[in-house]
Amino acid sequence: MIRLAIQSKGRLNEDSLQLLKDSGIDVDDAKRKFIGKASNFALEVLYLRDDDIPGVVADGSADIGIVGFNEIAETGADIDIVRHLGFGKCRLSLAVPKDSGYQALSWFEGKSIATSYPSVLKGFLLNEGINAEIREIKGSVEIAPAAGIADAIFDIVSSGGTLVSNGLKEVCTVLESDAVLICRKGLEEGKKDLLRSILFRFDAVIESRGKKYILMNLPSSQIDKALTILPSMRSPTIMPLAIDGWSSVHSVVDENSLWTTVEDLKRIGAEGILILDVDKVID
Ligand code: PRT
Ligand code: ZN
C-alpha cells in the first residue's frame, strides 16, 4: 500500500482526481473524508490542505503527494520531485499599483511588499540585492496596496484578472509553477514498485494530453509533401488504399497546430480527414 496526499478542495483537487481516474485508479471523491482508498489499486489517499502536503510527505505520514511547485519552493521541504504534471499552471510575480511609475526592479528599494510566500520573496530580493520589507499576510494579498498595508504585492498570478481588477500590474515573474508529484526520501522497495506503476500510468495520460490522432486519404504522389507537414512520434503510418494511386496516412499531431496542419494537408489534396482523441500514449 502506498499513501498519496492530495488537496481536499481547491484548485488542484479536481485535476488530481481526474489524473487518477484517467490512470485507471478509482478513488472516491471524499470531500468530507480525511482518508480514502482506491478500489482497484494498492493506494490510500489523504485529503489535505495544500499547505500541509509538503510537510506530510517529508515526515513520512504520506509517501507521495500532488501539490503546487510554489508550495515546495516556499516550504523548502526535503522531498524529491518526481514529475511536473502540467496542470495548475501559475506564476509567482511581483505586482505594483498601475500608476506607480514603476520602471525597474530598483523601484522596490525601501518599499514594503505583502505576500503569502515570504521565503521565495526573501530569496529573490537577496539575490537581486534589493532591501525591501516583507509583510506576510495569509489571504487577499491583492488588496494590500489599496488598503495601505503595503506598497506592492508578491502573489500567485494565473490569468492576471485579479491584479487588473485591483488596479495592479505585474512587473516581474519570479517563479513558474505547476502541480508536481512529490515523493518522500528513502521509499521502501515495495512502495517504489507501486510508485513506478503509478508513474507509468501518469506518463501515458500526460503524454496523450493535447494530442490528436489524424487519418486521411491522400494521392500517393503527395506523400513526400505530407511527410514534411506531419510530425509524428516516429513517422506517419502510410498504407495503400484499394484504389490505385491513393494512400491512407495516419499520424499524431499536437492540438495547438492541428488546424494549420489540416489546412496544409487539404492544400496538397488530402480527403476524408478524420481527427480522433488520443486516450493514452505509451512510449
Ligand atoms: O484550502 P487550501 O489551503 O488547500 O487551498 P488554497 O486556497 O491555499 O489554494 P488554492 O486552491 O487557491 O490553490 C492551490 C494551488 O493551485 C496553488 O498553490 C497553485 O499551485 C495553484 N494555482 C493555479 C493557483 C492559481 N492557479 C491561482 N490563480 N492558486 C491561486 N490562484 C489565485 C491567485 O492568487 C489569484 O488571487 O487565484 C486568483 C485568481 O488568479 P487570476 O490571475 O487568474 O486572476
Ligand atoms: Zn493553502
Could you walk me through the main structural features you see in this protein, from its secondary elements to its overall organization?
The longest helix has 20 residues, at 189-208. The protein has helices spanning 13-22, 53-58, 69-75, 118-128, 161-165, 189-208, 223-229, 258-267; strands at 2-7, 35-37, 43-48, 64-68, 80-84, 90-97, 112-115, 133-136, 152-157, 168-177, 179-183, 211-219, 237-240, 246-254, 271-277. It is built from eight helices and 15 strands. The protein is 27% helix and 32% strand. By secondary structure, it is α/β, with parallel strands linked by helices. Helix 4 (118-128) links the parallel strand 7 (112-115) and strand 8. It has three domains: 2-88 and 178-207, Periplasmic binding protein-like II (D-Maltodextrin-Binding Protein, domain 2), CATH 3.40.190.10; 90-177, Periplasmic binding protein-like II (D-Maltodextrin-Binding Protein, domain 2), CATH 3.40.190.10; 210-277, Alpha-Beta Plaits (2-Layer Sandwich). The radius of gyration is 24 Å and the shape is flat. A six-stranded mixed β-sheet has the order 2-3-1-4-11-5. Phosphoribosyl ATP binds next to helix 3, strand 9 and helix 5.
